[in-house]
Design a protein that fits this description.
With 76 residues, this protein is of the alpha+beta class. The protein contains three helices and five strands, in the order βαββββαα. The two termini are 15 Å apart. Strands 2-3-4 form a three-stranded antiparallel sheet, covered by helices on one side. It has a two-stranded antiparallel sheet with strand order 1-5. 41% of the residues lie in helices and 25% in strands. The chain has one domain (7-75): Metal Transport, Frataxin, Chain A (2-Layer Sandwich), CATH 3.30.920.
Length: 76
């Protein structure tokens, strides 16, 4: 099992696209990505820390309706 690791913003967006998200689109304060009718805000940091990454991945899991493992995330 691969460990979770911090992720660069560009890599995070690339992986979300592989999961079926569209975007990023410019919002008022943050960029966002869309999956169906759901919207996920993308912070403007160059790199996401582990707590920030896990928080966003929990939101992605709710949008997708399934769990994302570290192995699956690292292989995207």
């Amino acid at each position: 099992m691969s460990p979770w690791a911090p992720c660069k913003r560009r890599g995070f967006i690339r992986r979300l696209r592989k999961l079926g998200f569209d975007g990023p689109f410019a919002g008022t304060r943050h960029h966002f990505m869309i999956y169906g009718e759901n919207r996920l805000a993308i912070p403007s940091n160059k790199e996401f820390s582990m707590p920030q990454l896990r928080m966003m991945l929990r939101e992605v899991e709710l949008i997708l309706g399934r769990r994302i493992t570290a192995d699956e995330w690292n292989h995207l």
